[in-house]
Write a structure and sequence with these properties.
Structural class of chain C: mainly alpha
CATH architecture of chain B: Orthogonal Bundle
Number of strands of chain B: 2
Strand order of the largest sheet of chain B: 1-2
Strand content of chain B: under 5%
Helix content of chain C: 55-70%
Strand order of the largest sheet of chain C: 1-4
Order of helices and strands of chain C: HHHHHEEEHHHHEHHHH
Chains: A alpha/beta, B mainly alpha, C mainly alpha
Shape of chain C: globular
CATH topology of chain B: ABC transporter involved in vitamin B12 uptake, BtuC
Largest sheet of chain C: 2 strands, antiparallel
Number of strands of chain C: 4
Distance between the termini of chain C: 18 Å
Shape of chain B: globular
Strand content of chain C: under 5%
Oligomer: heterotrimer
Largest interface: B-C, 49 and 47 residues
Distance between the termini of chain B: 49 Å
Number of helices of chain B: 11
Chain lengths: 261, 299, 335
């Protein structure tokens, strides 16, 4: 089954009486941008947690590039090529922007048990980092301490770090979160560029504009279940999805429909 | 190992466990609600004993001395809370560890300055001296039964207070969500002071009751503190139920191993093993559950 | 090599350390030796506290393992330092490996307690060593020697200790700037993120733990030599607490800070002891005051006073229970 990079099979997770993930089955094809949408409380965070290895599912399997990764740790999955960006900014505050990305580049090496040479001077780490900062549009901030950057710049840094590990698949967790209009446009373009380079992307997002613009396929998560999965057109017209969204966020969905319309 | 001896040790274990419970519930409440690690808890135990001794020397009567000791300990607790603990609520764990460690150093030295380095023995109250036969052939000190009883009553009062009163409800709510309680118009500062003083009083109570058994001396609270922390780890930090279960486990386990291990093994390392027993228990519990037996789930 | 303010300050301190003590007499040479030894031990605590974010109450126990190892080796005839000291370091690293392997599986409050528990176990174990004096400890009667060079002379011994301290400082300085150091700092800053980019936290934490253990063990071996005496009190959790205090007094996350903190602690004790045996009465509140009122320790204050910026950050520690991240005092430029 080499056309699928990520295969989620029958995943289930319950917290006491609350079933956050209810028999979820989902596939992401190589090279496709697959969006995961759903109202608040649908269980997206729990699903992402199980994909990254931070939450252990009660049942089900996750396969990545044909390999069963259900029991692997977060770091092991990252090393296999599954990179993620975080919904709530999660960077290394005391490092510079370049340092953040350089550390992500460093993570691709077999190990980091090298104790002698100053990391700052190792060009094979710093050059790719600088290039990535330029790619995402924050090259001038290379030496800025990450803690001193704005929220929008953090989001860009998140993407740079995800790309730095040269992943087979990018799991982007609400990259548009908290961005203003101008920043959203820039991020949208950035994501488009990444998609253009044929990365495989699983995009978890609320921003419908971006979703319908970029996604090759969309899966809709409601109450822990995938209620629909298909092309953007199919989703647009799917009755259950409309009900789920209209119940939660009527304006947003309708607005997105009109925008695409 | 006669049955009488075993029974005696079991009772001792429960008594020790209940003392540990009084200490542990204070530590766990303060952490659960204010998110503060208080390493000076052992000092509160110690000054409970010292204040009892001082009050006894002054009034020559247990009936007067005990309440007096409580009042003095309460005063110290209030001053401590206002001056040291309040700033610590906003600080991180490292600051809390170091500041309360500094307090322990201070208190140990302060009692030395006032009362000297020598251990001072205290007499068991006349009324409670003597023994009863708990099982045929086994005479057990009345005093130990009495303090176990007091601790159990204190525990029950605490339970009712926390679950049945308005203030108790606020405390429970405050441990889940400080902001909301503050938004309700409750004086959160006063609530914190109350919780801290309550925990200090429980520690002082334990110190007062153990005074006649242990003798007061500088640093007497340090091993009690460490054992209390072991209880809290085993029981799960933030959980009162965990404090009770953990305390009884540690109390009984520690007491029994002190008696049984030297009987089973007789080597140079026996004393070391006996002291290590509760840490081994803690290690086993942690293997079983990384956050203790009843970890309170914090959002 | 650029000579910034920081480097200049370090050179001045080094010069003072080299020149001053012999001029003041044997008592101060011995005092300076003690500062250097405790400074080394405190530095090892800072590696874990300031650079990795781990609060440990067990470092004194590793210090003690080094002391006992060196002491036992001397008494057993292994007087050559080139054999005894590496062996002491090795013993400490082994002990740390075992303790670390088990305790690093926990975090936050549990971690502090587990390190404390192991330290207590080693303490009780040392007390039970009847052949080695039990609770009273034992005297080694003589120091190690460097083969050709005897270390009985206090001045000679002081300079050897100073050389080792400078060496340790230099090596750890390089260590925290290396690729390994970057991972450690990354784990401290954001362990979750470090894992998400592919660094498994556990092996790296274990490695730094063992390295810090080796340094503490060396300090312990030097202590056994300095005092020519070893006893269980060197393993006490109170000493672990005092080491933490030295680090925070001197400025954590700076390597030099802990040494200054050790100097301050010992000088404070020394000076006040002349007036009162109850010097702890003042030290306790001083520690509380430092924590509550001062933003920086000694080194941080020195740096601020001379350059007005770029102070060592106050440590962020790993404490999942409190939920909130303990933010840094000031961001430091250029990593």
């Amino acid at each position: 089954m080499s056309e699928f990079l990520l295969e989620i099979e029958g995943l289930r997770k319950a917290f006491g009486a609350l079933v956050a993930t209810n028999n979820v089955t989902l596939n992401v094809r190589v090279g496709e941008t697959h969006a995961l949408i759903g109202p608040n409380g649908a269980g997206k965070t729990t699903l992402v947690g199980q994909l990254t290895g931070e939450i252990t599912p009660d049942a089900g399997r996750i396969r990545f590039a044909g390999r069963d990764i259900t029991g692997l740790t977060t770091a092991e999955r990252a090393r296999l090529g599954l990179a993620r960006s975080f919904q709530i900014t999660s960077i290394f505050p005391s490092f510079s922007a370049e340092g953040n990305v350089a550390l992500a580049v460093q993570a691709t090496e077999p190990h980091s048990f090298r104790f002698w040479h100053p990391a700052e001077q190792i060009q094979r780490l710093r050059e790719p980092a600088r290039k990535l900062l330029a790619d995402v549009g924050i090259a001038p901030l290379a030496q800025r301490t990450a803690a001193a950057m704005s929220h929008g710049q953090h989001r860009q840094l998140e993407i740079a770090m995800a790309l730095a590990t040269r992943p087979s698949m990018l799991l982007l967790d609400e990259p548009m979160a908290g961005l203003g209009t101008e920043e959203s446009r820039a991020m949208s373009a950035l994501l488009g560029g990444i998609k253009g380079r044929r990365h495989t992307i699983l995009l978890v997002e609320h921003d419908m504009d971006v979703v319908f613009q970029l996604a090759d396929r969309i899966s809709v998560l409601v109450g822990g279940r995938v209620v629909a999965s298909g092309s953007p057109d199919e989703i647009r017209n799917h009755s259950e999805v409309r009900i789920a969204y209209l119940g939660e966020d009527e304006d947003e969905f309708a607005g997105a429909l009109n925008a695409q319309g | 190992m006669t049955l009488a001896l075993l029974a005696e040790q079991l009772f001792n274990g429960v008594q020790f466990g209940m003392m540990l419970f009084l200490m542990a519930v204070g530590v766990t409440l303060v952490f659960g609600i204010m998110r503060v690690i208080n390493l000076a808890h052992g000092s509160l135990f110690m000054i409970g004993g010292y204040f009892l001794m001082a009050a006894l020397a002054w009034t020559r009567s247990y009936v007067l001395a005990i309440p007096l000791a409580f009042v003095m300990a309460a005063l110290v607790a209030v001053v401590l809370e206002v001056i040291v603990m309040r700033p610590l609520y906003r600080r991180g764990p490292l600051d809390q560890v170091l500041a309360t460690f500094g307090l322990t150093l201070f208190f140990n030295e302060a009692v030395t300055v006032i009362w000297g380095r020598e251990p001072i023995p205290l007499m068991v109250p006349q009324l409670l001296a003597g023994s009863v036969e708990i099982i045929p052939g086994g005479a057990y000190p009345v005093y130990r039964l009495a303090i176990t009883g007091v601790a159990i009553v204190a525990g029950m009062l605490l339970y009712f207070f926390i679950t049945r009163t308005r203030v108790g409800a606020l405390i429970r709510a405050g441990s889940d969500n400080r902001e909301i309680v503050a938004a309700l118009g409750v004086n959160i500062g006063l609530l914190y002071t109350l919780v801290f003083v309550l925990s200090a009083m429980l520690a002082a109570l334990a110190g007062i009751m153990m005074g006649p058994l242990l003798s007061v001396e500088p640093g007497v609270g340090d091993p009690v503190l460490i054992t209390t922390l072991v209880v809290v780890v085993i029981g799960g930090i933030g959980s009162v139920r965990g404090a009770l279960v953990g305390a009884l486990m540690v109390g009984i386990f520690d007491t029994l191993s002190r008696v049984l291990i030297p009987i089973a093994i007789s080597t140079n390392a026996t004393s070391a093993l006996v002291n290590m027993a509760i840490y081994l228990l803690m290690a086993v519990v942690l293997l079983f559950s990384r956050t203790g037996l009843f970890a309170a789930h914090r959002g | 090599m650029k000579l910034g303010r920081r480097e200049l300050l370090l050179l001045i301190l080094l010069a003072i350390a080299v020149v001053l003590p012999p001029r003041l007499g044997i008592y101060y040479v011995r005092f300076a030796t003690q500062i250097a030894i405790y400074g080394m031990a405190a530095l090892s605590v800072d590696l874990l506290l300031g650079y990795t974010g781990l609060i440990t109450f067990g470092q004194a126990a590793i210090f003690g393992v080094g002391a006992y190892a060196a002491g036992m080796l001397i008494v057993s005839g292994f007087t050559n330092a080139f054999i005894a000291w590496p062996l002491a370091i090795l013993a400490s690293m082994l002990a740390t490996l075992v303790i670390g392997a088990l305790s690093l599986r926990t975090r936050g409050f549990q971690f502090i307690m587990v390190t404390l528990a192991f330290a207590q176990m080693l303490y009780y174990f040392a007390q039970s060593l009847r052949n080695w004096g039990g609770d009273d400890g034992f005297s080694t009667r003589r120091r190690n020697d460097l083969g050709f060079l005897s270390l009985e002379n206090h001045e000679t011994f002081y300079y050897v200790v100073l050389v080792l301290l400078v060496l340790v400082c230099w090596l750890t300085f390089r260590l925290v700037r290396s690729e390994f150091g970057m991972v450690i700092l990354g784990i401290r800053d954001n362990e979750r993120r470090a894992a998400a980019i592919g660094f498994p936290p556990y092996p790296y934490k274990l490695a730094i733990f063992v390295i810090a253990g080796g340094i503490a063990g060396l300090a312990g071996a030097l202590m056994a030599n300095h005092a020519k005496f070893v006893s269980p009190s060197v393993l006490s959790w109170q000493l672990s607490g005092e080491l933490l205090a030295m680090v925070i007094l001197g400025s954590a996350n700076s390597l030099i800070g802990p040494i200054l903190g050790a100097a301050f602690f010992l000088a404070f004790r020394d000076m006040l002891s002349d007036y009162t045996e109850h010097w702890m009465l003042f030290f306790g509140p001083l520690l509380v005051a430092r924590v509550l009122l001062m933003r920086n320790g000694i080194w941080g204050t020195l740096i601020r006073a001379t350059s007005g910026g770029e102070t060592p950050r106050e440590p962020k520690v790993d404490f999942p229970e409190t939920g909130e991240r303990v933010a840094a005092a000031k961001p430091e430029a250029g990593v």
